[in-house]
Specification:
- By secondary structure, the chain is of the alpha/beta class.
- Helices cover about 40% and strands about 15% of the residues.
- The chain is built from 18 helices and 15 strands.
- A seven-stranded mixed beta sheet has the order 1-4-5-15-10-11-14, sandwiched between helices. It has a four-stranded parallel beta sheet with strand order 8-7-6-9, with helices on both faces. Strands 2-3 form a two-stranded antiparallel sheet.
- Strand 12 (about 305-310) and strand 13 (about 320-325) form a beta hairpin.
- The chain is globular.
- The mean pLDDT is about 95.
- Bound molecules: pyridoxal-5'-phosphate.
- Pyridoxal-5'-phosphate binds next to helix 6 and helix 12.
Length: about 450
């Protein structure tokens, strides 16, 4: 019997607009606040830090935002990405569920992050900005931005979380290949970095600290330099919706729709990317597709955090963002899904969770690697440790479907491949990994420091 494994779209079928879910939300996301005045950040204030083009997108109420021709042109290097039926995984699980995954690992940098790196650099380039700064955890965002900067002729300084800098030398070299300057964070190049090193010279860094450093450098060089962020913000989530827009078209081609859509969750961008276009069907067409975010048990902001205003970084330089958060001083354990070690969630996703329009679960580290190995051996692709969280949840859902004797259609986003993350797998094989549970007491201590703005 002929079985279609991959559902493809031609380049001509690539969606030409991003989807802005804010247009369809009954309860709009709360505004981002100026930390000094606690008034909503204005366009002018945000434009000090970010390109004008993306700031406009942060505020837009339009349902669809057209993808600029130059961006579409670069997207076509690898898009559309395949939607794949995971027959091998289904067989191994002996499940009646159908499991599909969207393979964002096929991008040149190996993950979904290029979907937003390209438009972000494009809008800076249009504005005449010459230098960009950013942070990177796992190295994925830095790689994406490096490649995008090389295409538009901007230069780039990347503050890379020190733990990853040493664990992932190849990510650093990828960034160097595309011409970026990569600095291990905390560094002695910024006040923020120096302050932390003075307290703890051996600090291995965090995304929050690296953000502080990148923001500081951009603020110091206003005329020519802007900062970029690879997740969390509204426009970043919107850029990623190309993933779900393609997936909707692909499912339409085979006359099916998923019952469950799953994405791993760091700041929310790949989850939003795969999930929002399906949520639109729930909101506009009365469907009941479950959209599930998967976070690490060791960094459980969605399942155990509080809904409150918090800084996006550790030092308190960024605007206050309404988020599910563990507190900006929360220090996540040194797990190998670097991209998921972030204390908060984006404003839109936080509002959706608050309104119970999406679900959230957490998965322990060992289960994610077991899932990653099963996926590698059944489908051939070694998933990024972040993406393995989505695989793990897809497996849980497929097992549940078997127990209940129902055939569900499950879609998960394979946000990236793990070929540059083999150090993590090496640690797993060597028996050096374990699960980390966080005490309620620790979460109480890091969340009790937050301002009491959302009552
Ligand atoms: C960065 C990253 C993530 C987490 O970031 P989100 O903004 O939550 O998507 C997940 N998977 C991979 C492969 C990443 O590089």
């Amino acid at each position: 019997m002929e079985k279609t494994k991959k559902i493809m779209l031609s380049e001509a079928e690539m969606p030409q607009a991003w989807y802005n879910i804010v247009a369809d939300m009954t309860n709009k996301p709360l505004p981002v606040l100026n930390p000094q005045t606690r008034e909503p950040m204005t366009r002018e204030q945000l434009c000090v830090l970010f390109a004008e083009g993306v700031v406009d997108q942060e505020f837009t109420q339009e349902r669809y935002v057209e993808i600029p021709e130059e961006v579409q042109d670069l997207y076509r290097i690898w898009r559309c990405t395949p939607l794949v039926r995971a027959y091998g995984l289904e067989k191994a699980l002996d499940t009646p569920a159908k499991i599909y995954f969207k393979n964002e690992g096929t991008s040149p940098i190996g993950s979904h992050k290029l979907n937003t790196a390209i438009p972000q650099v494009y809008y800076n380039y249009k504005q005449g900005i010459k230098h960009l700064t950013t942070e990177t955890g796992g190295g994925q965002w830095g790689s994406a931005l490096s490649f995008a900067c090389s295409k538009f002729g901007l230069d780039l300084k990347v503050f890379m979380v020190k733990a990853s800098y040493f664990q992932k030398p190849y990510r650093k070299l990828m960034m160097n290949t595309w011409g970026a300057d990569v600095i291990p964070s905390p560094s002695d190049q910024t006040d923020a970095g120096r302050a932390i090193l003075a307290q703890d010279p051996d600090c291995l860094g965090s995304l929050g600290i690296a953000i502080s450093e990148a923001v500081e450098v951009a603020m110091r060089n206003q005329a020519t330099t802007r900062y970029t962020l690879g997740s969390v913000l509204n426009y970043v989530l919107m850029h990623q919706t190309i993933i779900g827009e393609e997936a909707v078209k692909q499912f339409e081609k085979i006359g099916e729709m998923p019952d469950i859509v799953i994405g791993c969750f760091g700041g929310g961008s790949n989850f939003a990317g795969i999930g929002f276009p399906f949520l639109r069907m729930n909101m506009k067409e009365g469907r009941h597709i479950r959209v599930v975010a998967v976070e690490p048990q060791s960094c459980p902001k969605l399942t155990r955090g509080v809904f409150q205003y918090d800084f996006g970084d550790t030092t308190g330089l960024t605007p206050l963002i309404p988020m599910y958060t563990l507190g900006h001083n929360f220090q996540p354990a040194d797990i190998h899904a670097g991209g998921l070690r972030y204390h908060g969630a984006g404003a839109i996703v936080s509002q959706l969770l608050h309104d119970e329009l999406i679900e959230a679960v957490s998965v322990p580290q060992m289960e994610t690697f077991e899932a990653g190995l099963l996926f590698a051996n059944t489908e051939g692709i070694i998933p990024a440790p972040e993406s393995a969280h989505a695989v793990a949840q897809a497996i849980r859902e497929a097992k549940k479907a078997k127990e209940e004797g129902v055939s569900k259609t499950i879609l998960f986003n394979l946000s990236g491949h793990g070929l540059i993350d083999m150090y993590a797998y090496e640690q797993y094989f060597a028996g050096n990994l374990r699960n980390f549970t966080i005490s309620d007491e620790y979460i109480r201590s890091t969340t009790s420091e937050l301002p009491n703005i959302i009552k």
